[in-house]
UniProtKB/TrEMBL annotation:
<dbReference type="GO" id="GO:0003680">
    <property type="term" value="F:minor groove of adenine-thymine-rich DNA binding"/>
</dbReference>
<feature type="domain" description="DNA-binding protein H-NS-like C-terminal">
    <location>
        <begin position="61"/>
        <end position="106"/>
    </location>
</feature>
<dbReference type="GO" id="GO:0009295">
    <property type="term" value="C:nucleoid"/>
</dbReference>
<dbReference type="Pfam" id="PF00816">
    <property type="entry name" value="Histone_HNS"/>
</dbReference>
<dbReference type="GO" id="GO:0003681">
    <property type="term" value="F:bent DNA binding"/>
</dbReference>
<dbReference type="InterPro" id="IPR027444">
    <property type="entry name" value="H-NS_C_dom"/>
</dbReference>
<dbReference type="GO" id="GO:0005829">
    <property type="term" value="C:cytosol"/>
</dbReference>
<dbReference type="GO" id="GO:0000976">
    <property type="term" value="F:transcription cis-regulatory region binding"/>
</dbReference>
<keyword id="KW-0963">Cytoplasm</keyword>
<keyword id="KW-0238">DNA-binding</keyword>
<comment type="similarity">
    <text>Belongs to the histone-like protein H-NS family.</text>
</comment>
<dbReference type="GO" id="GO:0032993">
    <property type="term" value="C:protein-DNA complex"/>
</dbReference>
<dbReference type="GO" id="GO:0001217">
    <property type="term" value="F:DNA-binding transcription repressor activity"/>
</dbReference>
<protein>
    <submittedName>
        <fullName>Ler transcriptional regulator</fullName>
    </submittedName>
</protein>
<dbReference type="InterPro" id="IPR037150">
    <property type="entry name" value="H-NS_C_dom_sf"/>
</dbReference>
Length: 129
């Protein structure tokens, strides 16, 4: 290999390294966006790990605990949220319309049970919260 071939080779190696770094940066950015989208949809549709095909026998103890998580908020349509993670879309919309999270408590200290009348009163004429 003569001197000009060696410099071409060295230059190609540098280009490969730069392209590899750029590809990894773009991949990391895309993965971040994909994960955010997936997390939002899981929260919005209240998808459980078992619905995604994860079986409890292969889940970590922390994941098993998550499967047992109780719902603390529920709207009149029966959609629930445990209070952990991102707020679901239905709750965000209700909060934007002046409701309080406490309006959707499944059980609170004053009633100690779910009040369907409470959530029914939160519906508008078109049935939306």
């Amino acid at each position: 290999m003569d001197n000009s071939q060696a410099s071409n080779y060295t230059q190609l190696i540098k280009e490969i390294e730069q392209l590899t770094k750029e590809a990894q940066r773009l991949r990391d950015q895309e993965i971040h966006n994909v994960i955010n989208t997936i997390q939002q949809q899981i929260s919005e549709y209240n998808i459980t790990p078992s619905e995604l095909g994860f079986h409890p026998e292969i889940l970590s103890p922390a994941s098993k605990k998550m499967l047992e998580r109780k719902s603390y908020y529920r709207n009149a349509d029966g959609q629930t949220w445990s209070g952990v993670g991102r707020q679901p879309k239905w709750l965000k919309i209700a909060l934007d319309h002046g409701h309080k999270k406490e309006d959707f408590l499944v059980c609170n200290q004053s009633t100690n049970c779910f009040s369907s009348e409470l959530n029914q009163s939160n519906k508008t004429d078109d049935g939306q919260l």
